[in-house]
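dumping this here so i dont lose it
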């Protein structure tokens, strides 16, 4: 059915952003309850894609999540379009073909780039008399200036009834437009790595089911291990980041699951992290400048060596430190590593290599399949030690290696150059001489020597970051941050 055939028929719109699901979806509910037929779409916007935080793996996840939605909606002839065009051009086209009455969507706590787009669209809708209703996402409150009552409101939101979406057959329109995905782009998006977590609502629920049925029983015990965490962690972070599951759905499912009684410590640890998930997004919603500026402006005064060769070695997992390189290579290949190893990668970048955190933030954003701006930038800065309110943790990659991968299974999997290295050398392969390598049947030492010295860089980083915490501007900013983001009684 084309727009021309319909003429200037009155319709509504559901504009899907990071809410790629069919249930507990307020925008779909509003459109279904309204009297008009509606068009639902998600967009791959060139102006957003060009932003350096976006990668092809993100677009692939979106593409396959939309395919999953359409499979679910097929029984009611529902269909969510995925178009390659900027929002303003899409709405301009649709407004010529149809009489748009209302637009329903969720608020997006994204970067300044998406925020500017939304402000422009708000003006565009208002000028044309189109009502745009934006629903609150996951207990994140727009326009908040401090945390008075935020935690209480979040719990109220999480415990409110879930939306049980119902879809009327034929109410969601399927139309033809000149900005459908090209065959070339479709081929790129279809080619989805088998080692990435499968995208979409259906798969999100499978991961949640398996976590609560067995996988998550040792969650709190194995969370720091780069190997064990791949199984024991919930692994639902991509589904939360792209809205395949809502925070409320996950919160209520875990909270009310019968296995929680026997595994309360593990399940409660996840529930706590769901709140922290939203806590960081709320911080970013209040100050999205965190993408490019230090949370604590006092740390913008710091200077860094910013050696480009060291940065490239870090990006490609060629630092000479097995755990650092294994984590980076695992991340490049699969799109996921556990939290402790993420923190170690950031610490190594900023504290050991003396790189400004901004040099690596977009690189990891592109690699994380679960990239969520509201979590990524505040967390990146916390691990980089530039908040002025959190403890500066300078990770020792050898210590982490020995504690979290004592047998070296993770290292040998992702750094195959070391697969035949004896255990006594595995965490510090530079200690192995050429003769040692020869005795082990290793014809050459293809793995690089360390690009920095841990003792030297550790002393430098401790002096640099710990002393700067007493700078007057850092202290002033720390007080401001605490005032803004600390719960009030």
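and the seq i came up w/
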């Amino acid at each position: 059915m084309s727009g021309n055939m319909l003429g200037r028929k009155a319709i509504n719109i559901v504009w899907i952003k990071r809410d790629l699901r069919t249930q507990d979806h307020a925008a779909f509910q509003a459109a279904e309850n309204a009297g008009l037929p509606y068009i639902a779409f998600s967009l791959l916007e060139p102006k957003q894609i060009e932003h350096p935080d976006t990668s092809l793996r993100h677009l692939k996840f979106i593409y396959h999540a939309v395919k999953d939605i359409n499979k679910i909606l097929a029984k009611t002839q529902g269909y969510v379009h995925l178009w390659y065009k900027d929002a303003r051009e899409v709405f301009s086209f649709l407004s010529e073909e149809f009489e748009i009455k209302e637009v329903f969507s969720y608020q997006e706590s994204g970067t300044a780039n998406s925020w500017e787009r939304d402000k422009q669209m708000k003006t565009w809708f208002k000028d044309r008399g189109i009502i745009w209703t934006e629903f609150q996402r996951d207990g994140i409150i727009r326009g908040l200036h401090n945390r008075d009552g935020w935690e209480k409101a979040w719990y109220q939101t999480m415990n409110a009834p879930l939306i049980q979406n119902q879809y009327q057959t034929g109410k969601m329109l399927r139309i033809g437009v000149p900005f459908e995905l090209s065959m070339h782009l479709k081929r790129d998006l279809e080619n989805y790595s088998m080692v990435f977590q499968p995208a979409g609502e259906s798969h999100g629920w499978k991961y949640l089911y398996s976590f609560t049925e067995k996988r998550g029983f040792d969650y709190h015990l194995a969370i720091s291990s780069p190997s064990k965490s791949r199984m024991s962690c919930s692994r639902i972070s991509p589904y939360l980041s792209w809205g395949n599951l809502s925070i409320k759905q996950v919160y209520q499912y875990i909270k009310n699951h019968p296995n929680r009684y026997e595994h309360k410590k593990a399940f409660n640890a996840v529930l706590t992290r769901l709140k922290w998930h939203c806590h960081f997004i709320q911080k970013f919603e209040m100050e999205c400048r965190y993408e490019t500026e230090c949370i604590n402006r006092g740390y913008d005064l710091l200077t860094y060596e910013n050696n480009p060769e060291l940065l490239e070695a870090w990006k490609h997992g060629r630092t000479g430190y097995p755990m650092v390189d294994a984590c980076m290579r695992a991340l490049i290949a699969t799109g996921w590593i556990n939290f402790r190893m993420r923190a170690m990668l950031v610490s190594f970048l900023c504290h050991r290599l003396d790189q400004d955190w901004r040099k690596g933030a977009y690189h990891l954003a592109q690699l994380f399949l679960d990239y969520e701006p509201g979590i990524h930038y505040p967390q990146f800065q916390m691990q980089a030690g530039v908040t002025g309110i959190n403890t500066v943790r300078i990770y020792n990659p050898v210590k982490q290696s020995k504690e979290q991968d004592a047998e070296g299974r993770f290292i040998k999997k992702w750094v195959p150059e070391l697969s035949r290295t004896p255990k006594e050398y595995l965490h510090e392969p530079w200690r192995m001489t050429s003769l040692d390598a020869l005795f082990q049947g290793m014809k050459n030492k293809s793995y690089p020597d360390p690009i920095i010295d841990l003792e030297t860089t550790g002393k430098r980083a401790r002096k640099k970051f710990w002393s700067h915490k007493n700078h007057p501007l850092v202290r002033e900013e720390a007080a401001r941050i605490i005032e803004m983001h600390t719960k009030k009684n």
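The two ends are 56 Å apart (CA to CA).
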